[in-house]
Amino acid sequence: MDHFPSFEILPGQHDKGMVILGDHAMNRLPARYGRLGLPESAFSRHIAYDIGIEGLVRKLCAQLGVPGVLGGFSRLLIDPNRGEDDPTLIMKISDGAVIPGNHPISEEEWNYRIETFHRPYHNAVSETMDRVANATGKAPLVLSLHSFTPAWKSVPRPWHAAVLWDSDHRAVGPLLEKLRADPDLVVGDNEPYDGALKGDTMYRHCMVTGIPHALLEVRQDLIGSETGIEEWAARLVPVFAEMNADPALHTYSVHASRTGPY
After folding, report:
1. How far apart are CA 70 and CA 124, in angstroms?
2. pTM exceeds cut of 0.90
3. Looking at the domain assignment, is residue 259 inside a domain?
4. Can you tell me the distance from the alpha carbon of 138 to that of 222, in angstroms, rounded to the nearest whole number?
5. Measured between alpha carbons, how far is 235 from 222 in angstroms, rounded to an integer?
């Protein structure tokens, strides 16, 4: 196995109390997988990664001075935002693209990808969150960033951004309120996806443990350039900083999940 980092930890001050995550930040694959039988063009599409998120998370962490964790591999290899028992963990087809390198796949290879890529990423997330909690003596505020396509099946999506969540509204309410205060933004609430997904990153690291959190989706055409990334970083830095200053967003409180019992 060639050396391949399954995650990158972005430096920051743990005592500031915040962690920023980018599950689908990168479109990289280890050399042994080639391109999974796909054309190179597939790796510039949303099926491979969340366009714009790597740059946005890097800027937010740098400007806020907080740590972050980036997934180091393409979601086409294995999806870090799915539970280990989720049947969509390794996709055979994504948005119409058949992935030859994922089908057929042996149980041994399935488990290898979990142990080599998926699990180390989540261990890095846990360890980073633990360091923040230990530095402050309080719950960290966790914000996860993703991006979505401007249209789906030729239907335009009207939202500039959206906040996804399960049942813990503590960080979601302030985030929605602050973003919607901008008259130029259309901000979705659990659009274009529902944020309740058993076993995903927010479920695993925050819902089960009672840590305040929110998942923010930004439309990818708005952060597909350096200019767009800078604009959204400038918009989000004061929002995230104000949220992080709220003591209510640094307490532990477990909320029942809409997906069923823990």
Report:
1. 9
2. yes
3. no
4. 34
5. 12
